[in-house]
Amino acid sequence: MFKKFTAKLKAGLAKTKKKVLGGLKAILPFGRDLDDELIDEMENYLYTADIGPRTVQVVMEQVRQAYKDRTIKTTDECFEHLKSILKGVMSSDKTSLVTPQQPPLVILVAGVNGSGKTTSIAKLCKYFRDRDKKVLLAAADTFRAAAVEQLTIWADRLGADIVKKQQGADPASVAFDACDAARARGVDVLIVDTAGRLHTQKNLMQELEKIRRVIGKKIEGAPHETLLILDANNGQNAIAQAQEFGKSLELTGLFLTKLDGTAKGGAVIGIRHQVDVPVKFIGIGESAEDIEEFDADAFVEALFA
Ligand SMILES: Nc1nc2c(ncn2[C@@H]2O[C@H](COP(=O)(O)OP(=O)(O)OP(=O)(O)O)[C@@H](O)[C@H]2O)c(=O)[nH]1
Ligand SMILES: [Mg+2]
Q1: CA–CA separation, 272 vs 86, rounded Å?
Q2: Is the CB of 295 under 6 A from ligand 1?
């Protein structure tokens, strides 16, 4: 039995499904005998589906082997087999969030500009509020004028506390105060928002390391989670972002956003296969409830449903 996907996930993946499954079905119509030519066409198509050449090669090696072994003989069998291959290349046993020995669970959020950090924090906040957790948000994006205001609106709406300072304040000092407040108020989860940055901006990457260090000094073992927020529209570039951020920060998870708006969701397969950090959540809309815990089996089933 496979892990069941939600209707929301299926709807969120509609554009990607049209691209990946729609295209494959045109090449491999049901009820046909498989042959080398069809398999070549299948491979060529997968190269256009944002999965990434390295991952496509690995997948196609397995498809060809199964055809050679006569494990798959028809297009129908090929689809079923492809599903299990994809589940295999995407599998990870570390997709759930860490539970600290004692609260608060501290989550540091990072990513490039506009990748969806603040919105994803709102989603995580809702996720924990729905589980009756007390949440504190830290507005450590002190760079952009509207950033604090944006996070404050979410905090009010979702029933969370917020720690903030004036624009231009040292983001590490916001994190510092937030750790104190989290302890004093006995919150379950502290989530730290940060300004967008590129991995090539050395001083900004150092700033992020400083935030991380300060949190670690204040709360033992924290941040327990360092999540990189990646926009799925970036396709293959998201892989490079994960690898580069991973050099400065010890990432514990990826949060892939905007899957609902893109046909490039096939990138999730390549990211999961090529980046040694698990995808923990995906974002499939702009509202706080548009969040799903990532599950490779459910993802593949929703894509092929
Ligand atoms: N469709 C869709 N839009 C999203 C999703 N996540 C975020 N967005 C939108 O992406 C835009 C940027 O989101 P933010 O959360 O402000 O991104 P950010 O990374 O905090 O941006 P900066 O702080 O400026 O670096 C907003 O318009 C969000 O509504 C998603 O899963 N789906
Ligand atoms: Mg933001």
Answers
A1: 10
A2: no
